[in-house]
Amino acid sequence: MRMQRRGEDALDWRMYRGEGQVQVERYFRASTRLAASVMFYHLEPGAEEGVHHHLADDPASCSTDSADEMYVVTRGEVVVTGGPEPIVLREGDAAYAPHGVPHGVRNDSRAPAELVLVYGPPLG
Predict the structure, then answer these.
(1) pLDDT tens-digit map of 52-81
(2) What's the CA gap between 13 and 25, in Å, rounded?
(3) pTM of whole model > 0.70?
């Protein structure tokens, strides 16, 4: 069994033309056989990931592979962007973005927000 403590693989990242920086913690990067990657996001007020999508062979994609993403809010609230209307998610809420669908998150609140992101190839 392996263990990783918070902060061991963290970086502040300005993502996909978003405002501010998102602190991203990558868990067990390239050291598991899981098909999905798990990350932890910390967003200070005003920080945003920026709208993006994941679709193989699409030059506008932010990645070279097709991947789905799921966000689970663990603290505070975030606004999910990219759809027809922004959606507010609060602690315990989740959003799922299939590959190719534009999406992003931002923190419009006055308090920090945190979420877990699961990213991986679609099945089937």
Answers:
(1) 777 777 777 767 777 889 999 999 999 998
(2) 10
(3) yes
